Amino acid sequence: MNKIVTIGISLLILLQSANIHFKDLVELGQLVEHYQFHNEEYGDSFMVFVSKHYGELKASHSEKHQEEQKEHEKLPFQHQTQCAQPLVFVLGADNFVDSRSEIPVATKGNFHYQISYSHIWGDDPFQPPKQA
Predict the structure, then answer these.
(1) In sequence order, what are the residues at sequence separation of 6 or more whose Cβ sits closer than 8 angstroms to the Cβ of residue 37?
(2) Quick check: 26 and 70 in contact, CB under 8 A?
(3) How far is CA 90 from CA 95, 97, 98, 100, in A?
(4) What share of the chain is helix, strand, coil (3-state, %, to 5)?
(5) Could you write out the DSSP letters of every residue in 72-110?
(6) What pTM value is reported for the model?
């Protein structure tokens, strides 16, 4: 059962990544029927049929055959999608990287610490700062 679910989800992800919807798979029968109609009426090959409905000849075919408009709307893969990927270019990025700002540093401290030259594992390893 787990294998069937895994294969099903994998196929779903594959089809969605190729922008194929479940509705398109259901409408494949309409595509075959309309292709058979074009093959009998106009003698079109499959490549000419695809070009008339999805390619270069789509506009002229739609103008000439207005009576087939309802059948054309039932064909699969008629949905349109938009994919927006905004690109941002930064010109002169070296100005941002090399820019340095000076931060004022207080020179007067609140405490004084004298460096101890004694061994760290001596009597008292944790020595707090000593006041001068």
Answers:
(1) 71
(2) no
(3) 10, 12, 15, 19
(4) 50, 0, 50
(5) HHTSSS-------------TTHHHHHH---PPP-----S
(6) 0.51
CA–CA dist 35, 63 (Å, integer): 18
pLDDT tens for the chain, 132 residues: list them: 999 999 999 998 888 888 888 888 888 888 899 899 888 988 888 998 888 888 888 888 888 888 888 888 888 887 776 667 777 776 665 555 555 666 666 666 666 666 666 555 555 666 667 776
Classify residue 38 as exposed, middle or buried by CB count within 10 Å of its CB (0-12, 13-18, 19+): buried
